[in-house]
């Protein structure tokens, strides 16, 4: 091997690097700009020829090539100087680490190679843009799309210089423009997106670009430009051949939805009917029902519902995922596919179908038949005869829930059937506490409280921890007025269920019935510590404090109750009366105005508003309010009396008109009373009713309920027809009074306002919570 190693002789006095700087002046790159022949060659096709790589002066590629036989061949430099590592005159030239200049490598790179690299970069940018969009980074996706567009234009110019225009990659241009338009649309830059789509659509070199008018229609739909959306949808539909059936169906569905948004239900119906006849699907069927519902066509609603039920789900049955044998391999496969992506898609499709069917049934049930119940029964029967049999039970439950929301409890009171099922349960297992409790519930509903108590006692003997039976026997003792025994039951239950709002309320209610308000208040305080936003419990506390004469505390709890539930008319009336008592008539106005909104047909609330304006000295506002009341209630005598008096004192010309109307109404009232008296002479009933009517007309406007009578007594501070306009004697305000209109800490509102009532709890315990196990 040593024969192949050549060492430089130590006594050689020749310069080893001689000739290194000798080179052909042709390769003097510093003077290329001034070389006329070189510049002319660059401008002509001759300059576009690829360079001959063998003549490129480079020291990095001219090493001697060794063979397997130990011979060595050196490559001579084209410039006449020895190459690095070559043997010259028997002496081996030393090897160096100097590489060739980058200028030569880059300047003479093939244009086709540059184009390929740039094309690769454009594809990468498009891909990165799509990935960023899928990850939710819309801004980055748009930047990548713009960058891809810029580089693609550079690529096109370079291709035009090297090749003919026919060789331009149109597919790449199309993908870049489409991605850019999509990213503009995703970033809600609709004008730029439409402009980019127009560039694609108008270019005749792009095949099938016309279908992108669907995307343009979608943008116009988002901009609520419905006429243009329909125009572009139809243009796209004309350019898509009939063989693409699925695409045409989707476009027609978009057209139908747009017609619904514009209120053109007849055109929408035509679109959806065509879809359901060609390729029925769930969305089109549901939209068809909505369209028929909008035009009020009952028969067509029924037919559309039947079409929706008949849409095939095209999913596998659940039995497919149940192993038919004990084969471990089969079980392993079934376990693997039981929750795979395909199975999840099937579940989602089924859930969507059930949602559409349930929503459609709830929508059309009240209108397709003479009553809600008959319509719902028709929907249930149709569902039972379809592939969605399991939805029939859900529809029945929804029907019952609808009755509960409408407070129509009698619709579901099938006591005979409930009693027969309860008997079957008891006969099958006499020692089952749930069966005995439900049997007691049916007896309780029929009013036989003694017998119901016996069933509850038997349930407790079989299971002393049956809280439902213990609670219900407490309610039963309350109905029997055995308050001590009822209190014992609820106190025992309280030791088991420490924070039960129902139990706390029942204890407080029993103490109230036992005329022990202090204990009732104490237990209600515990109740609002558990449910601090319960408006009913707060108003009950206010009522108890009011009965004890503590107006300040009563006001605090009534006001808190009003904050959480501002539609309780009793609370509103008490607050209005409280402000009148404390000589703050201006603040009472807002409560009576709210009461008039809740009960717009009750004239007394509007009269209270006018009276508050009058007492506060705002006579013009009071006059306008009385005039407005007279327009709404022209036969109200009280309103006319105040109008006559106000117009007289102010000196208005309308006084004569109102006086004439008042006189005519009073005469009609007198004639009506005489007829009643002559028809029922000597009866006490009519006389008491006449007295109540007269009291109402005299300006008191009291409610008929006992609580209403107590609360309306507070409103008697308002002046009657013969009282002066000035406010009565000033009263000192309680030192503990708190202005409700002052700074208040805003409390978060609860999602639902639960109202606690004895009958509500009875219904809860006698209903869903006591079903057989």
From TrEMBL:
Biased composition (Basic and acidic residues): 673-692, 746-757
Mapped TPR repeat ranges: 210-243, 249-282, 433-466, 467-500, 501-534, 535-568, 569-602
UniProt entry keywords in alphabetical sequence: Cell projection, Cilium, Cilium biogenesis/degradation, Cytoplasm, Cytoskeleton, Flagellum, Repeat, TPR repeat
Residues covered by region (Disordered): 1-28, 673-773
Subcellular location field: Cell projection, Cilium, Flagellum; Cytoplasm, Cytoskeleton, Cilium basal body; Cytoplasm, Cytoskeleton, Microtubule organizing center, Centrosome, Centriole
Matches recorded under InterPro entries: TPR-like_helical_dom_sf (IPR011990), TPR_rpt (IPR019734)
Annotated Polar residues bias: 693-706
GO BP annotations listed: cell projection organization; regulation of cilium assembly
Gene Ontology terms: cellular component: centriole; centrosome; ciliary basal body; ciliary tip; cytosol; intraciliary transport particle B; motile cilium
Main location: other
Any matching Pfam family: TPR_6
Biased composition (Acidic residues): 758-773
Gene3D superfamilies: Tetratricopeptide repeat domain
Keyword Ribosomal protein found: no
PROSITE patterns: TPR
Function: Positively regulates primary cilium biogenesis. Also involved in autophagy since it is required for trafficking of ATG16L and the expansion of the autophagic compartment.
Known partners and oligomeric status: Component of the IFT complex B, at least composed of IFT20, IFT22, IFT25, IFT27, IFT46, IFT52, TRAF3IP1/IFT54, IFT57, IFT74, IFT80, IFT81, and IFT88. Interacts with IFT20, IFT22, IFT25, IFT27, IFT52, TRAF3IP1, IFT74, IFT80 and IFT81. Interacts with IFT172. Interacts with IFT57. Interacts with IFT46. Interacts with IFT70B. Interacts with C2CD3. Interacts with ENTR1 (via N-terminus). Interacts with LRRC56. Interacts with DZIP1. Interacts with CCDC38. Interacts with CCDC146. Interacts with CFAP53.
Official protein name in the record: Intraflagellar transport protein 88 homolog
């Amino acid at each position: 091997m040593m024969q192949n190693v050549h060492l430089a002789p130590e006594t050689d006095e020749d310069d080893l690097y001689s000739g290194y700087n000798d080179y052909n002046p042709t390769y003097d790159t510093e003077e290329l700009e001034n070389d006329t022949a070189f510049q002319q060659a660059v401008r002509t096709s001759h300059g576009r020829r690829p360079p001959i790589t063998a003549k490129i002066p480079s020291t990095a590629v001219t090493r001697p090539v060794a063979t397997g036989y130990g011979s060595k061949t050196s490559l001579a430099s084209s410039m006449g100087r020895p190459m690095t590592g070559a043997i010259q005159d028997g002496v081996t030239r030393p090897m160096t680490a100097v590489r060739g200049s980058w200028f030569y490598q880059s300047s003479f790179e093939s244009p086709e190679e540059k184009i390929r690299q740039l094309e690769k970069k454009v594809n990468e940018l498009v891909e990165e843009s799509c990935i960023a969009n899928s990850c939710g980074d819309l801004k980055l996706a748009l930047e990548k799309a713009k960058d891809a567009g810029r580089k693609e234009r550079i690529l096109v110019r370079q291709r035009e210089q090297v090749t003919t225009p026919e060789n331009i990659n149109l597919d790449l241009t199309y993908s870049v423009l489409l991605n850019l338009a999509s990213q503009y649309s995703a970033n809600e830059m609709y004008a730029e997106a439409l402009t980019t789509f127009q560039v694609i659509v108008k270019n005749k070199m792009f095949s099938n670009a016309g279908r992108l008018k669907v995307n343009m229609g979608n943008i116009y739909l988002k901009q609520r430009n419905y006429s243009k959306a329909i125009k572009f949808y139809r243009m796209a539909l004309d350019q898509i051949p009939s063989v693409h059936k699925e695409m045409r169906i989707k476009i027609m569905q978009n057209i139908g939805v747009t017609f619904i948004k514009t209120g053109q239900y007849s055109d929408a119906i035509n679109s959806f009917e065509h879809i359901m006849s060609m390729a029925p699907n769930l969305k089109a069927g549901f939209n068809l029902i909505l369209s028929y519902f909008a035009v009020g066509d009952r028969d067509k609603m029924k037919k559309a519902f039947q079409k929706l039920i008949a849409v095939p789900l095209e999913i596998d049955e659940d039995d497919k995922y149940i192993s038919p044998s004990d084969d471990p391999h089969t079980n392993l496969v079934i376990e693997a596919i039981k929750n795979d992506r395909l199975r999840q898609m099937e579940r989602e499709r089924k859930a969507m179908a059930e949602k559409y069917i349930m929503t459609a049934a709830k929508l059309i049930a009240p209108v397709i038949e003479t009553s809600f119940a008959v319509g719902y029964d028709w929907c249930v029967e149709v569902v039972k005869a379809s592939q969605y049999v399991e939805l029939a039970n859900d529809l029945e439950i929804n029907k019952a829930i609808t009755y509960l929301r409408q407070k129509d409890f009698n619709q579901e009171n099938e006591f005979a059937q409930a009693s027969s099922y309860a008997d079957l349960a008891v006969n099958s297992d006499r020692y089952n506490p749930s069966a005995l409790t439900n049997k007691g519930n049916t007896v309780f509903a029929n009013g036989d409280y003694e017998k119901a108590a016996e069933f509850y006692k038997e349930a407790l003997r079989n299971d002393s921890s049956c809280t439902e039976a213990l609670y219900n026997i407490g309610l039963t003792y309350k109905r029997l007025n055995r308050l001590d025994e009822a209190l014992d039951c609820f106190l025992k239950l309280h030791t088991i269920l420490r924070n039960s709002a129902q139990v706390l309320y029942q204890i407080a209610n029993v103490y109230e019935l036992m005329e022990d308000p202090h204990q009732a208040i104490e237990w209600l305080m515990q109740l609002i510590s558990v449910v601090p936003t319960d408006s009913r419990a707060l108003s009950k506390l206010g009522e108890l404090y009011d009965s004890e004469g503590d107006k300040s505390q009563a006001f605090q709890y009534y006001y808190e109750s009003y904050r959480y539930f501002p539609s309780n008319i009793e609370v509103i009336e008490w607050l209005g009366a409280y402000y009148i008592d404390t000589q703050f008539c201006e603040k009472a106005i807002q409560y009576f105005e709210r009461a008039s909104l809740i009960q717009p047909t009750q004239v007394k609330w509007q009269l209270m508003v006018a009276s508050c304006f009058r007492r506060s000295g705002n006579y013009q506002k009071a006059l306008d309010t009385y005039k407005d009341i007279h327009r709404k209630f022209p036969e109200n005598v009280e309103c006319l009396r105040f109008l006559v008096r106000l117009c007289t004192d102010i000196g208005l010309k309308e006084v004569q008109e109102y006086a004439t109307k008042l006189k005519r109404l009073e005469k009609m009232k007198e004639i009506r009373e005489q007829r009643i008296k002559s028809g029922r002479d000597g009866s006490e009933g009519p006389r008491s009713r006449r007295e109540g009517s007269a009291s109402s007309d005299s300006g008191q406007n009291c409610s008929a309920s006992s609580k209403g009578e107590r609360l309306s007594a507070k409103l008697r501070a308002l002046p009657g027809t013969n009282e002066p306009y000035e406010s009565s004697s000033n009263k000192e305000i309680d030192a503990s009074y708190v202005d409700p209109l002052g700074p208040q800490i805003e409390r978060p509102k609860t999602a639902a306002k639960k109202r606690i009532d004895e009958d509500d709890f009875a219904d809860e315990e006698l209903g869903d919570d006591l079903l057989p196990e």
